[in-house]
TrEMBL record:
Subcellular location: Membrane
TM region(s), chain numbering: 35-54, 75-95, 110-129, 136-160, 166-187, 199-219, 288-308
PROSITE patterns documented for this protein: TLC
Protein name per UniProt: TLC domain-containing protein
Claim: Transmembrane is one of the keywords in the record: yes
InterPro entries: TLC-dom, TLCD
TLC domain sequence ranges: 68-320
Highest taxon in the source lineage: Eukaryota
Keywords: Membrane, Transmembrane, Transmembrane helix
Topology versus the membrane: Multi-pass membrane protein
GO CC, alphabetical: endoplasmic reticulum; membrane
């Protein structure tokens, strides 16, 4: 399927092409405008749109955030917008691009379609933004997110060779969980931590993350490893010809009848586009490229498993009541006793004290007159009085009981 946004201006293509060819990325000139537009769009959201719109939508919360949290808020807004847009585009393309769905094993490694290039360009534009943020604010986000940004940018940039162009929308579906992750973060900042809304969102987050990143992602990783292994087999076979002269792998990769079933020019062009850059892939795929791709993919998968365990822990922490410490238990008991003492009517205590005096003879065991007893109670001292009062509380019923 052809790129729905069309090619870049001729001047931009001519400007970028020499640098792209030196980097073995011949398809980059076809999508460089989309990379620039994506990066500029996300940077605009970060620097202008979010700081302007967030105080309007959340006037009670956003203005009160400190500088660090406000920066994090703006970054999450970019992530939310990007994840929604890229997922919609990837899902649409996977269903609409019939040429992609008919690719053979070799074409999945070496083939190219304009829509896959579009998805790849949009992803690269975002990951350039993400890399800059991860470097500038590494103390805030840590080395893990920096590794993620580098690995993701590297993996998607390889598609411009073209290499594994077919898998661009496949692995971008990792982002299906990102909207829920961002919503979970926003709910914390607008004082909805532990709410029913956050609970439902948290369950969706864990479910989608598990399905799209762990299940789907792991399975597709296995599939891409198998396709790359087949591509290496063809490369090694072509390189070890009897006369030690490398031969092209195109005969074993691209279908000879591409476009023969088309009834219009657009279809024929879309089918022909699959092998459009076959001259650049004729020598096969280098071993180092496969090794670095697998390494980056493994890093991303490891981070997904690690983050999933942290997400489970975080979501459960939001809704799990921690056990009370000994200090909290003691404070609670003291508070209950104080409340009980404050609720005992003064006349009940004085009457009970007078009875004690009668039993003890005159000034009795207390050694105080009723007036002095009252004064001692009001002043809050007299250890013996408090002990006797506690004993009487158990015997004298409170009013209304």
């Amino acid at each position: 399927m052809l790129d729905p946004l069309g090619p870049p201006p001729a001047w931009l293509r001519n400007l970028v092409e020499p640098y792209a060819l030196s980097l073995s990325s011949p398809t980059l000139p076809e999508h460089v405008h989309e990379v620039f537009l994506a990066f500029a769009f996300y940077q605009f959201i970060h620097s202008f749109l979010s700081p302007w719109l967030s105080p309007i939508l959340f006037p009670k919360h956003y203005p009160k955030l400190n500088a660090r949290t406000r920066l994090n808020w703006d970054i999450h807004v970019v992530s939310l917008v990007q994840s929604v847009l890229i997922n919609v585009a990837a899902l649409w393309m996977m269903f609409a691009d019939t040429e992609r769905s008919q690719m053979s094993t070799g074409e999945r490694v070496f083939g190219y379609t304009g829509t896959c290039g579009l998805i790849q360009a949009l992803a690269v534009g975002y990951f350039i933004y993400d890399l800059i943020v991860s470097v500038v604010y590494i103390n805030m986000f840590g080395i893990g997110l920096l590794f993620h940004a580098v690995s993701a940018l590297w993996v998607f940039s390889l598609g411009f060779r073209p290499f594994l162009n077919y898998y661009a929308p496949v692995f971008i579906l990792y982002e299906l969980s990102s909207p829920f992750l961002n919503i979970h973060w926003f709910l914390d900042k607008i004082e909805m931590t532990g709410s029913r809304t956050q609970w439902y969102n948290g369950m969706l987050l864990l479910s989608v993350f598990f399905c799209c990143r762990l299940v789907w992602g792991t399975w597709q990783s296995i599939m891409v490893y198998m396709d790359m292994w087949n591509a290496l087999q063809q490369t090694w076979s072509a390189a070890s010809s009897p006369l030690q002269t490398p031969t092209t792998v195109n005969a074993n990769v691209f279908r000879p009848d591409s476009g023969s079933m088309c009834i219009d020019e657009t279809c024929a062009r879309a089918n022909a586009e699959i092998a459009r850059f076959s001259d650049f892939t004729a020598n096969g795929v280098p071993t180092w490229l496969v090794v670095t791709y697998v390494t980056s993919n493994l890093i991303l998968n490891f981070l997904n498993y690690f983050w999933f365990s942290k997400m489970v822990e975080t979501v459960l922490k939001r809704f799990r009541t921690p056990p009370a410490s000994e200090k909290e238990k003691k404070e609670g008991q003291d508070g209950q006793l104080k409340e009980l003492q404050e609720n005992i009517p003064q006349d009940v205590i004085l009457e009970a004290a007078a009875k004690l005096e009668e039993q003890g003879g005159g000034r009795g065991e207390l050694g105080l007159t009723p007036e002095q007893i009252s004064t001692a109670i009001d002043a809050g001292f007299g250890e013996e009085l408090r002990r006797r009062r506690a004993e009487l509380v158990a015997k004298v019923p409170l009013p209304g009981s």
